[in-house]
Amino acid sequence: PGLFNSVIKGFAMEGRSDDAMKVFLEMQSQGVQPNVVTYNTLIDMLGKKDDLTEALRLYHDMKSMNIEPTVITFSTIINHLGKSNLVDQAYELWKEMMALGIRPNLILYNTLFKALGRSGHVDAASMIVKQMANDGVNPDAFTFSILISSLGKARKVRAAKALFERVKDKPGVVDVVTYTSLITAIGKSGKVYEAMRYFEEMKLRGHEPNVVSYSSIIDTLVKKGKIKEGYAYFQEMVQSGCDPNGITFNTLIHAFAKVGELKLTKSLLKDMEARGCGPD
RNA sequence: UUUGCCAUGAAUCUUU
User: Fold this and answer.
1) ipTM of the complex
2) Of A15, A18, A140, A193, which has the fewest CB atoms closer than 10 Å, so is most exposed?
3) Does any strand B atom come closer than 7 Å to the Cβ of A176?
């Protein structure tokens, strides 16, 4: 089924889910049995188009075909349930997985933290962090980015910072995304200068800010009325060869419009067109 | 050749 799976994946990546489903039927009519990878791929594809009903139907299908789900099956479904804010169902699946004796791996834990974090269940996530440690699964930069931004969205910025400070000297668990998560959390709490301090620390530690990092710090600054400072970061970003995207421009244009900076707004709109970032 | 095909993180606006 490997060949069919690759073809299905190809269609899935192009968003051609109906073609993918046709291949799925076609392989069966040729007597090739789909395997767990086939199902995982299709479930992920359906989840990406928010068709959770169909995704769950396939999950039940595979079980009735006696195809054993794997940890990937569960992280795929939990991921999409989380993104659809169906945390309770995500948590049910987590329990089902445990009941089946399937060991959660790093990605599964990260996915679950993300689902819990989105819905504000940061305390539940902290409990599971302990279980993860007991399981001998080591957190990575994804884990801390998820936990830190979840804490930030739950307005627990002190906890976010404490967590970050606790792990930032360990190798391999902090990267530009982890820093950006913290910078955003602090920025949204209104501590502009502290956000800037971490932004500078990030650069000093050799983590090159990317378009998301710059957009985040710019947003923090301009929302606090620090238009000049925000624009200075925009210039730094361009000079350092980091291309702004539609979100960067959107952030600046909103801010400029608010304070009536018509000239700068116009020049940004031009700049935007020149860069092929269509305004929306 | 413990082969190959599948899953996770950060930014703006909009919103219930």
Assistant:
1) 0.88
2) A18
3) yes
